[in-house]
Amino acid sequence: MPSMLTEQVQLGFDIATSVTIIGALISWSLESRRRASKERQLGLNEQARVASLEKVQTILSEFETSFSDMVQSCTQFTSPIRRRVNTQSESPFAALERYLTNRPGEIDKLVESLEQIRHHVDIYYEAIQKRRYSLVPVLDSLSGGEKFLTALQQDIREIGHAHDSINTGYVALLKEFHQLTQYANSLLESAPQDVEDSEKVDLLMNDGSFISRSYALLADADYDKWVDSFVPSGKEPEFRERRDNNTLTDNTQLLVHININLAGNLIRNQQRLYAQILWLACKQVSSAQVECKDILIKLSALTHKLMANNEETQLEDIIKLYESDEYFGRTSSVR
Q1: Which residue, of 9, 142, 177, 208, has the fewest CB within 10 Å?
Q2: Which top-rank group of organisms is this from (predicted)?
């Protein structure tokens, strides 16, 4: 009897031990599966992060090269202008006027430089439009990516605006005014050397082709800031209203007055008019360059975010830091 009791106790102990072992095995198995699943998920996340990083770095490298080419063209155009304009002087364009007078072929070179800039902005704009399809999925997967995406899309719109401005703003005005001036100069070459300026103005005003070319400049709203200098004082509101309503030719006296002012300045202050347009175009080019640089700064910040792999680090904070003079100097540094 004692032996049977002992055997029963031992059997109960063995069963309990077996149940414990089996439970432990089941628990270990489940935990192993959870751990393996987590490791697989971490592995997949890591793979996705690395793939995203490689993609962004590839895009960044592409834009760095494109931006470098753009900066080279921009600097070639803006440097000779900025060095010779003194905005604190009573005659801010005097040095630039002398520079243009002493180098008759310089305008042609500057117009050619603007063509190169326009070409580079075209390439940059098309590239960012194309790369959106690679960047959006990356941003969607990141914490805080929504704000970054909004900022990026805003930059793309601003580059689009800069792209349009390069094609239709003061850059285009320089080309059109250069063509008008060349035509006017060819007409004036036929005039006697000792003829009065007023007679030269009459010569231009009596030429239908000059008037039509002049009107094309005056009627373009993109050139308002420059055209205003030829509009009689106090007549600016009427001029713009008539221009916008296509009734500018209805007030012949006003239109003739503006054309005479343009023709007179073209005869007496031709280099000054060029200098004014070049300065306006220079600022427009610099603005476009900053807009394009914004994309590079944001891509650099995104690279940092992916490399650091830190959820606590916000993209917008990295961007602000990178925009500072301590890093890339958004507006203080050309490159």
Answers
A1: 208
A2: Bacteria
